[in-house]
């Protein structure tokens, strides 16, 4: 799987099926919206209430215009693009580049937080490249994430999911992040990319936190840098193992061979492995937890999905639209001062696209704040759009369908254990998800 665009822009496609939702299950009424107060400049994207539910703020931003100056808790300032049409345009705007070299000094001081030499050695992956280099590197992925290959591996993925559920307590409850969501995507990823079993067993999920901003003055900086060094050492072991192992044509082996043939620099090779390991699984972990949180907040729709398992593919698309784990894209930059939907954006300032705000745009999605698991069409942007559309979208969709289907089928009575408002959301600037999700269920089938 790919990376946090962590772990991807996601452009949804309409799925075949009935054109209207089941009449037997009434849809919940959207919450009425209050008259918005004036927006500050820059708008702070921070606070517990914002992380729990950013959508009222996104509504106000969309109503006020397509582009706004915002500031993250880390102090990084950016121009935020809201609204479906504006987001889609920005994701394909040829003037907006992804290469970090385009960022100005003010952006680098706050956002380019990975220390050297690691930044130069691990940040040269697909997400931070522009054509033609991006095209050449993406071609090296081959058919690793192709829908046909993913479909062929689906029985294997189902075995992983069942094995994890088998390990949960027979009755009572569990933490579904620790017991399932944090483990299932990595098992799938290791299978798809060819990560050796011995190395897969030693991967520390804590290393995924290196994509969560920790500034130079943050008290958590020493732990952040320790994780980064450990992950870099692990990547070196992966490369060495794939170089000496018999060639079997898996993705990791192909990338190592591309480096040895001169098609990739060592920095590009390490960066692509970094991207696969971190963005190839952490976003799916977050999306599983976010989908469960959404269903727990909409018990009528949860009951509907239990009663209509055939609805699962379309339900996954709607859950991605309604609350996607990849909330905001990574940085984009203009090489020169440019107009962006009527707003002048200086060269080198960071531009961020709100995929989440685009998913709730009423001009594209009728009753956009309503969760309708039978919604069609549903051309959401949760996997991005354009050249940086998530290469692992087909894999992610399959993982999410298997994860939800397995949990609902094998854990009857699945429900939250405690107050959902007490669940803490991860502090990442660009992503949504929870680190713990205590649940209860009647029994394990």
Written description of the protein model:
The chain is α+β, with helices and mostly antiparallel strands and 445 residues long. The protein has one domain (43-441): Orthogonal Bundle (Cytochrome p450), CATH 1.10.630. Helix content is 43%, strand content 8%. It is built from 18 helices and eleven strands. It has helices at 48-52, 55-64, 84-91, 105-111, 118-122, 133-139, 147-166, 176-181, 184-193, 197-201, 221-244, 251-260, 266-279, 282-297, 299-307, 312-322, 355-359, 393-410; strands at residues 43-44, 67-71, 77-81, 96-97, 172-175, 332-334, 338-340, 343-345, 350-353, 415-416, 438-441. The strands form three sheets. A six-stranded mixed sheet has the order 1-2-3-9-6-4. Strands 5-11-10 form a three-stranded antiparallel sheet. Strands 7-8 form a two-stranded antiparallel sheet. The radius of gyration is 21 Å and the shape is globular. Residues 27-43 have a biased composition (Pro residues). Residues 13-45 are annotated as: Disordered. Pfam families: p450. Keywords: Heme, Iron, Metal-binding, Monooxygenase, Oxidoreductase.
């Amino acid at each position: 799987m790919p990376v946090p665009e962590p772990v991807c822009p996601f452009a949804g496609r309409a799925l075949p099926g009935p054109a209207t939702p089941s009449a037997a299950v009434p849809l919940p009424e959207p919450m009425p919206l209050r008259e918005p107060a004036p927006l500050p400049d820059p708008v702070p994207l921070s606070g517990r209430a914002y992380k729990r539910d950013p959508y009222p703020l996104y509504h106000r931003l969309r109503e006020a215009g397509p582009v706004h100056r915002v500031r993250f808790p880390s102090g990084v300032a950016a121009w935020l693009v809201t609204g479906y049409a504006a987001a889609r345009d920005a994701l394909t705007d040829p003037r907006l580049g992804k290469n970090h070299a385009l960022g100005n000094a003010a952006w680098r001081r706050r956002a380019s937080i990975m220390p050297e030499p690691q930044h130069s050695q691990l940040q040269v992956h697909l997400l931070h490249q522009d054509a033609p280099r991006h095209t050449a590197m993406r071609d090296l992925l081959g058919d690793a994430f192709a829908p046909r290959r993913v479909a062929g591996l689906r029985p294997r993925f189902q075995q992983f999911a069942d094995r994890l559920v088998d390990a949960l307590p027979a009755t009572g409850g569990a933490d579904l992040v620790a017991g399932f969501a944090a483990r299932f995507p990595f098992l799938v990823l290791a299978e798809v990319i060819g990560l050796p079993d011995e190395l897969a067993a030693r991967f520390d999920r804590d290393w995924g936190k290196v994509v969560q901003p920790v500034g130079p003055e943050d008290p958590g900086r020493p732990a952040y840098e320790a994780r980064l060094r450990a992950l870099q050492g692990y990547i070196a072991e992966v490369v060495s193992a794939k170089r000496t192992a018999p060639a079997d044509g898996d993705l990791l082996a192909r990338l190592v061979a591309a480096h040895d043939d001169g098609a990739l620099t060592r920095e590009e090779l390490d960066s692509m492995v970094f991207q696969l390991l971190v963005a190839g699984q952490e976003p799916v972990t977050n999306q599983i937890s976010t989908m469960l949180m959404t269903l727990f907040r909409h018990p009528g729709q949860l009951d509907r999905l239990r009663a209509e398992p055939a609805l699962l593919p379309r339900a996954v698309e709607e859950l991605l639209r309604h609350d996607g784990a990849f909330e905001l894209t990574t940085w984009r930059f203009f090489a020169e001062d440019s107009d962006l939907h009527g707003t002048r954006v200086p060269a080198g300032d960071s531009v961020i696209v709100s995929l989440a705000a685009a998913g709730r745009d009423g001009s594209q999605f009728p009753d956009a704040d309503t969760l309708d698991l039978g919604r069609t069409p549903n051309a959401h942007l949760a996997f991005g759009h354009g050249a940086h559309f998530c290469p692992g979208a087909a894999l992610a969709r399959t993982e999410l369908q298997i994860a939800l289907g397995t949990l609902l089928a094998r854990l009857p009575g699945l429900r939250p254990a405690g107050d959902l408002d007490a669940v803490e959301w991860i502090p990442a600037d660009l992503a949504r998800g929870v680190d713990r999700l205590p649940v209860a269920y009647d029994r394990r089938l």
